[in-house]
Design a protein that fits this description.
By secondary structure, this protein is an all-alpha fold. It has one domain. It is 86% helix and 0% strand. The chain contains 5 helices and no strands. Helix 3 crosses helix 4. The chain is globular, with a radius of gyration of 16 Å. The two termini are 16 Å apart.
Length: 139
């Protein structure tokens, strides 16, 4: 079987991920809370931002590609709309791979539960937004 991936969907999902992160971690939304929990000051944040943003962009592109790839498989297997396949795939990947791993790692690293919830919430919204972009654009 040949898996079809729409590169416009992957590109749109990548940008969507960046926009969600920008909004989620902005000061008026959760940025102030996140900054306090991780004990990050503005100077350190500005210094780390260029490398962190490049890493975020690259990893968002990888995530978007994997989500588009698995969405296609779900679309074929379940015979549902492409949008439905993208959103349900995004949710199950989040639940089975992202949320669970965050919870385990954060428990061992003794991170505050509030940080865990904040980050897995961001990942849920991000993956659903990416799924929406991939599903809406379709094949």
């Amino acid at each position: 079987m040949e898996v079809e991936v729409n590169w416009l969907g992957v590109g749109s999902a990548t940008l969507t991920s960046m926009l969600v992160g920008w909004a989620w971690y902005s000061k008026p939304v959760f940025g102030d809370i996140w900054t306090k929990i991780v004990k990050l000051d503005d100077k350190k944040s500005r210094e780390a931002a260029p490398k962190a943003l490049i890493a975020a962009l690259l990893m968002s592109a990888v995530t978007a590609y994997v989500l588009a790839h698995v969405t296609y498989l779900s679309f074929i297997f379940f015979d549902v709309s492409y949008l439905n396949a993208a959103l349900t795939t995004a949710f199950w990947l989040w639940l089975g791979l992202v949320a669970t791993r965050f919870i385990v790692h954060d428990a061992f690293e003794m991170r505050p539960p509030k940080l865990t919830y904040l980050n897995i919430g961001n990942e849920l919204v991000t993956l659903l937004a990416m799924g929406l972009a991939i599903g809406w654009i379709g094949l």
